Amino acid sequence: MGRVYNFSAGPAVLPEEVLKEAADEMLDYNGSGMSVMEMSHRSKVYDDIIKTAEKDLRQLLGIPDNYKVMFLQGGASTQFAMIPMNLMKNKVADYIITGQWAKKAYKEACIYGKANAIASSEDKTFSYIPDCSDLPVSEDADYVYICENNTIYGTKYKKLPNTKGKILVSDVSSCFLSEPMNISDYGVVYGGVQKNIGPAGVVITIMREDLITDDVLPGTPTMLKYKTHADNDSLYNTPPAYGIYICGKVFKWLKSMGGLQVMKERNEEKARVLYDFLDSSKMFTGTVVKEDRSLMNVPFVTGDKELDAKFVAEASAEGLENLKGHRTVGGMRASIYNAMPKAGVEKLVEFMSDFEKKNLK
Ligand SMILES: *Cc1c(COP(=O)(O)O)cnc(C)c1O
């Protein structure tokens, strides 16, 4: 069987070109006589891999010089703890709860200080982004925290919250590099790469330099201090070396595609194909308010659990994989990250249209 169209929310589809290149280099990377998996992270060859990856990422996102880029481990979930441990100087932080990942981050922060949930969309199963133009931001908040693209619920902030001068911290795991962003609007931007960039095991954190200090909560482990990693260019200990190498290849791929503005246009075009169909369908409906729709994760339902299950099974038989929705939303979810070709979305819509014709009573 050949490759399928993989709509998984993460770990997720990677560009085929990248996988082929990695396969070609598997036994002998660039004349080194060994695989990237086998080489010392202190070697000249590897140093070049990680430095080039950072340089390309900086170029893609236009990261200002006063921001550090760190390649970390422990998944996005470890950032839920590292952020309060490193940034909660007043032991106060404000969280906007737009889904499970934001809620988990909020709960983690409650361990370390006073975390305030200043807005939430839980009342409507996280199907929208709350109005964040005039929130009750705490006077002494060390930061305001958001999850910018909600992987499970399929919402995305189209406008950043008004933090009233406080530092903005954003989890961009599932929209990382899907469109340009203005890094200087944030104090911290981070994401696990297994959604839109690379293999699981790498987290990229981009942080304004003045926020990286030794003034962290007492008892913070060395490995959980940003300063440890920033001071050592992500080589304090053995980094997730192979994962970073693949991320580097994806950065090169994104550059060859024309960069993030081009990716944004491609992603908008792909998402439009699916949303337009959902808006005209008599069987399928999107679960999110139109203004807040994500370009990356598209949940939809038929309203009939058995029909949903039938759809997922029949789609899988057609090579359209991993369309089952998250258990808290039900139905289906199509994740259409950077590496999902437009042809994959078109095939999905064609299948949905056929399914509708056959099953509509
Ligand atoms: C997947 C995901 C996480 C959790 O990532 P792990 O690497 O599994 O810890 C956090 N935030 C968002 C937005 C995600 O999509």
Structure characterization notes:
- The protein is 35% helix and 16% strand.
- The protein has 361 residues and is an alpha/beta fold.
- Helix 4 (100-112) links the parallel strand 3 and strand 4 (114-120).
- It has a seven-stranded mixed β-sheet. It has a three-stranded antiparallel β-sheet with strand order 11-12-14.
- The protein contains nine helices and 14 strands.
- Residues 10, 75-77, 101, 147, 151, 171, 173-174, 192, 195 line the site of pyridoxal-5'-phosphate.
Question: Which key phrases capture this entry?
Answer:
single chain, 361 residues, alpha/beta, seven-stranded mixed sheet, three-stranded antiparallel sheet, 14 strands, binds pyridoxal-5'-phosphate
Structural class category: alpha/beta
Secondary structure tally: strands: 14
Bound compounds, each kind once, are: pyridoxal-5'-phosphate
Runs with pLDDT <50, length 5+? none
Short description:
Helix content is 35%, strand content 16%.
Compile the SSE list and pairings:
Layout: E1 5-6, H1 16-24, H2 44-61, E2 67-72, H3 75-87, E3 92-97, H4 100-112, E4 114-120, E5 144-147, E6 149-150, E7 155-156, E8 168-171, E9 188-192, E10 203-208, H5 226-231, H6 241-257, H7 260-280, E11 285-286, E12 297-301, H8 305-317, E13 320-321, E14 332-335, H9 342-359
The structure holds pyridoxal-5'-phosphate (PLP).
